[in-house]
Amino acid sequence: MFDLHVDSVVGSDAASGAVGAPLQTLAAAETAALALGGAVRIGLAAGSEWRESLELASLAGVTIAAYGDIAAEGLPMIRGDDPITGGWETSADRSDAHASVYSVEWTHDIATGQAVGGPSVWEDGALLTWRDTVADVEANPGSFTHDGADSADSPVTLYVHPAGSTDPRADGKTYEATRRNRVVTVGDGATVRQLWCRRVGHDDGAINGGTGCLVDRCLLDGNIVHDALLASGEYRGTIAWRDFSDPRNDAIALEFYAADGTGLSGLWRGCVVKAPVLASGVQDVTALGGHTNGTDFYDLWEMVDCAIEGGKIGGNDVVEAVATRLSLVDAAYALKVEGTGKAQTLTDLQLIHEAAAAGRFVEVNGAVAIDGMRAHVSGAWTNQIVYQNDANPLVVTGSVFVDAGGTAFRRCLYHTGGDTSVTGCVFENASGVSQFRAVEAEGGFLAADDNVYHPATWQHCAIEVGGVLYGDAATWFAAARPAQEANSVQADPEIADPENGDFSLEAAGLPATCGLARPAILYTTVPASLAAAELRLRA
User: Fold this and answer.
1) pTM score, two decimals?
2) pLDDT of residue 116
3) Domain extents for the chain?
4) Nearest to 253 by CA among 183, 205, 325
């Protein structure tokens, strides 16, 4: 199956790399692969671990994949960090007043690309928090900084204040810092399968590939900027675990980037991204997204059966975007489509949001069709669940929106221009806040059939069309029937358990076509921990 085998535990660089005679290092594997050329297949042994890089960008059609008893031994791991093994200096050595701060000189090969980047530091596996100055580090245990002005500056001096204000020379803890730019680089048409790649420092991603690549069931964690970057192709069943926030840089977890996206497409299938909830001062993480040169757009981005917790889905420079069965937990969707015939289709999008938020949860443009969306939004939030800010049509069908928050003046659907059609939808103002708009359509024409609005209190489930406010559904019915509205009701839909994902309607007498056509969808979930994520990917 493989042309070369590599095992960090029992391999030898004096071996041939054949079955039963694995190489030991990635450096030896890289040399052998380049000598073989072509679509070489490299197997990395389950349970192996390397702190080095594998650079094969010059070869097309390469396969790099795990082999052996993966279920028992775990994914092979390639790391971008190294241990800090000594050389610590104290405030006395530096002749400064920062007695809790220890410093060490550190070299790395992170390339230029980030205004403030460079290495990060871990203490017993926990990422320390970046601070801007040594004085800030002194004041905050569990933090670090360095004196590099550019991400490529090397060597730099790392300044570390350990958690608990311990002495790293004697506390028995393990300290590690980013060393490498990326750990796997492949050319066009490559496959990278069941690898654990972690702790790199640059926006090229831990895995970097060309056009037509497949990244399959890989685990990516601890990467300070992007986790993976492909020109085009597919991310399949891959998990990016970002349970930290580094304020130095924004990040895209699973990214597509090409200067010219013409004729190219990107697919995310069954992927998971765990990221911080978007907030002021928190790293802005885009879970799925990318961009081009801003002129030559991707043809298509498609997202299927993905789960996002925190962060957002976002990006620009694509003509058509299709999203099916996405689960967003405390996350946002903001994808801008561009070019002639631009369009977005969202089917069975699930949004469960409990954190405080200001802004829009789903922001779309182009000709937009939304079907089967289910949203339960609580916490203190403002503005819109769905927002479209252009003159293209918005069509929403068979969807359920529940506002369980507590801030006045909110909108479920807000369209600033163009035709709006809303049929078979349910709007529930469960929090009872005032100035709540089920639909606000500034473009004028609104077709709104077979919908359910609740409650009946004035301005608690209102409709606004072309600047005219209809403070409750009954007032809207009287004005709009029969030309713009038919068969809708103002009633309690008795939604089963929307906070936990059950959007079934239990009330009698509702329009026959309202609500979800596919209520019992088994969505992809976010694992409970990094360890659980790794176990999922062993299969």
Assistant:
1) 0.96
2) 52
3) 4-76, 82-179, 181-348+521-539, 383-519
4) 205
